[in-house]
Amino acid sequence: MVFRSLVLFALLAAVAAAPAQRQKAVHERKILPSSFSRVGAANSTQALTMRLGLKNKDTAGLIDALMRVSDPASEFFGQHLSQAEVNAFLGPTPETKSAVNAWLAENGIKTKTVSPAGDWIEFTLPVKQANELFDADFTVFKHNADGSEAVRTLQYSLPVDLQDKIAVLSPGVSFGAMSKGPKVKRQLGKVSLAKRQSVPAGCDTTITPACLQALYGIPTTRATQATNVLGVAGFINQWASHSDLSQFLNSLRPDAANGTFTVQTLDGGVNVDLPGGILAGIEADLDIQYTVGVATAVKNVFISAGTFNNDDLSGFLDMINFLLGQSAPPQVLTTSYGANEADVSPAMAQYVALSKQLCTAYTALGARGTSILFASGDGGVSGSQSQTCTTFQPTFPAGCPFITMVGATTGVPETSATFSSGGFSNIFSRASFQDAAVSAYLASINDTNAGLFNPNGRAFPDVAAMGDNVEVVNSALAELVAGTSCSSPIFASIISLINDRRIAAGKSSLGFLNPFLYANPQAFNDITTGSNPGCGTNGFPAKAGWDPVTGLGTPKFSALLSAAMALP
C-alpha cells in the first residue's frame, strides 16, 4: 500500500512539474524560395539563439506621429520625437510582456531584452526543444548562389492565447539573402595622384564627384554643423579603408583631401583597415568615398554590423535598434544592401497585420529625425540581382513606405539604367503621398505588364542618381563600378548638405523624406527614357513624371535646397 502511494505521488509530481500543454496554431508558413535548397535536418543538440518580436503598444499612433512631423503641409513639420516618445509607441504592453514571459518560464526558458523599447526578447535553446516548443522542423538550408547555410523552418506555431501578443519568431521562416556589392566594370589601374583628375568633359564615360557637382549643382562649400552626421551602413564583412579614401580624395577631390570617417560597430562588427586598402570591401569603399567625397566636411560614420546577429535579416534590424538606442542617431543613413521581398517573412516585413518589426523600426527611426535611404537593387524588375522569374520580383526593404528608395541612371545626358530595380510591393500597400504620381503612371501604361505586378502595392524607387561607370578606389586600384549601391550614397550626401544648411538656420533635419520629395517634383530632373527589363520582358518604361525605374528623377540641388529651407 505504501509502495503504491509513493508511485502515485511520484507520478503526480512529474505531471505537476511538466509544462502545461497549450493549444497552438500555425503563426507563419512559407514555401521554400527557389534560391534555396534543403540540406538536411538540423542537429538536435545545436543551440539556437532565438528572438520573439512582441506586439507594439501603438504602431498606428507611431505612423501618425511620423506623418505629422514629415508632411510639409503640417504645422508640426520637423518636430521630431524623442527617444522616450518613440519607445512609448514601440514598447509592448505590460500584459503582453508578462504573458509571453510566463509561457517561456513554464518551459524553463530565461529571456533577456535586446531592443531599446523592450519589444524584442532573446533566449537560447537546443534545436530539439525549439522544434517541440514551436511545433516546428528546423532544417539546414543552403543558398544556391553563394553556398551559405542557415537553419530555418518552413512553419511554426504559437499558443493560441499569445497569437495577438507575438508578432514574429526569429530565426523562423525568413530566407532573406543579402545582395552583394556593385558590379566591377573595368579596372583603371593604380591611382596616380597627379594625373587622374577627371573633368566634366569625361563624364559620359566616367563618373566622379566633379561630374556629380556639375550634373546636380552640388556645391563644394564645406559643411559647418558639428551635429550633422551621415551614417553609412556596412554588412557582410565589407570594410572601408582610410588609405583608399585618401587616394580617392587626393585624386578626385583634392580640395577635400582631409576628409575622413569614424567607425561604430555592433553584432561583433569590426572595420579591418590595413595599409594599402588590403581586405577593403569594394561596397564599403564606394559608399564612404561618395559620402565623404560629395558631402563636403559632413561628419561621416561607418556603422559595421558583424556576423553575430540573430534578427533573421543579417543585422538589418539590429542596426536600427542600435541607432534607436542612441541619444542622437545620424540625421541620414544610407544602405546599399537588400534582398528579394519574396524571401523575407511577411510577419518580419509587415507593419499592419502583425505590427512592427523591421518596417516599424524604420518608422521609429524616421520619427526621431533620420532620413533612411536604400539602394533599390540591381536586377531590373527581376529583383535585387538579375534572376529567372515568371512575375516581377520587388526587392526588400523597398516595400516599406517609410524609407526612401534610390534607383539608378546612366550616361550624359542621363537615361535610366537597365539594372535599376523598381516596381510594386506584394506586401505593403501604396502610400498616400505617392498615390497621385503612381496612379498617373499606371494610367499612362494601360495594360503593359498586366498580371505581372501588384498595381496597388507601394511603388519604388522614389528618386534616382548616377549608378553607372562610377570611379572608386579599392585596394589602391581605380575601378569603374555600377549599381544602385552607387546611387544611394550620392543622394544621401545631397540630403546631408541640405540638413547642414537647415541646422545652421536653427531648423531641424528633414527626417523621413518621402512626403517632402513627392510634394516637390519640380526639384528633380525628370528621366523619361530607358526601362528596367527582366523576367523575359522589357520591364517598366521610364516616362514623364514618376516611374518605377527612376522614381521622381535625379536631384536638382538648388531646387531641393530652396524647398527645404522654405519649411519650418
Give the secondary structure arrangement, pairings included.
Blueprint: H1 2-17, E1 24-29, E2 36-41, E3 47-54, H2 59-70, H3 83-90, H4 94-106, E4 112-113, E5 120-126, H5 127-133, E6 139-143, E7 149-152, E8 155-159, E9 166-170, E10 183-190, H6 209-216, E11 229-234, H7 242-252, E12 262-266, H8 282-292, E13 299-305, H9 316-324, E14 332-335, E15 339-340, H10 346-349, H11 357-367, E16 371-375, E17 395-396, E18 404-410, E19 415-416, E20 423-429, H12 435-445, E21 457-460, E22 463-466, E23 470-474, E24 477-482, H13 484-504, H14 514-518, E25 524-525, E26 554-555, H15 557-565
Parallel strand pairs: 11-13, 11-14, 12-13, 14-16, 16-18, 18-22
Antiparallel strand pairs: 1-8, 2-6, 3-5, 3-9, 4-5, 6-7, 10-24, 15-17, 18-19, 20-21, 23-24, 25-26
Helix pairs in contact: 2-11, 7-8, 8-13, 9-11, 13-15
GO molecular function, one term: serine-type endopeptidase activity
Subcellular location: Secreted, Extracellular space
Protein name: Family S53 protease
